[in-house]
Amino acid sequence: MEPSSPSGPKIEGPRLGWGFVILGLFAVVFGGGAFAIQALLKRSAEPEAPVEVLHPTPQVITSMRQLALLQTSSFHMERVIDLRDRQSHVFGLVHVEDAILLVAAGDVTAGVDLSTLRDEDVEVDLAAHLVRIVLPPAQILSATLDNQATYVHTRRTDALAKRQETLETRARQEAERTLRDAAITGGILERARDGAERAVRGLARSMGFESVELSFRRE
C-alpha cells in the first residue's frame, strides 16, 4: 500500500495564491486612494483664479470728495456802511450819537461742499455708462473784507456821547453780512450751481461715463 502524499503543499498553495490576490487588492485600493489624495492636495495647492469685484460708486464719490469745497463763483463788491450809536442824556432831553461811515470792499465766494456727498447720492449704471449724481446745494462759502480797500471814511462822536470802541468792528461785521446778502440777491448761488454742474459733469465724463444726470439736493 502506497503512502498517501502529504496534504501540506496542497493546502499551502491556494493560501499563498489568495494572499497575493488580497495584497494586490490592497495595493490597488490604497495606491489609488493615495493617488487621489495627492491629486486633491495638488489641486488645493494650485492658486484659484482671481475674482474681481467692482464697486464703482465709492470710487466716484472718493474722486468727487477730493475736490472738497468746489468754489465756482465769486463776486467782488463794495458797500458803504453808515452805523450810528445813538445815546440820550438828561432824562432823554439830549440826544447824541457816536457814528462811523465805513467804505467796505470784499469778496463773496459761492460753491458746493462736496465733502458732504453721501453714498446714496451717486448711482452708477456700468452697462449703460450712466451715472446719476445728487449734488449738495450751492451755498456761500466765504464773505471776507479786503482790508487794503476797506477804510473808515468818517468817524464822529458828539460832545456828550460816549465813544464806542467796538463800533468799527460792528461796522465791519455788518459790511460782511450786507455783502453776503447783496451777492445772493445778485444771483451768485445760481451761478455757483451752474459752475458746479459743469465741473462735476466734466469730471464724470473724464472717468468714462457717457451720460451724466445731475440734480441738487434740497436744503
Descriptive terms for the model:
single chain, 219 residues, alpha+beta, 2 domains, four-stranded antiparallel beta sheet, three-stranded mixed beta sheet, 32% strand, rod-shaped, disordered N terminus
Explain this structure to me?
The chain is an alpha+beta fold and 219 residues long. It has two domains: 44 residues; 161 residues, no CATH class. The chain is 39% helix and 32% strand. The chain has four helices and seven strands; from the N terminus they run H-H-E-E-E-E-E-E-H-H-E. The strands form two sheets. Strands 1, 2, 5 and 6 form a four-stranded antiparallel β-sheet that branches. A three-stranded mixed β-sheet has the order 3-4-7, covered by helices on one side. Strand 3 and strand 4 form a beta hairpin. The longest helix is centred in the N-terminal third of the chain and has 38 residues. The chain is rod-shaped. It starts with 7 loop residues before the first helix and ends with a strand. The N terminus is likely disordered.
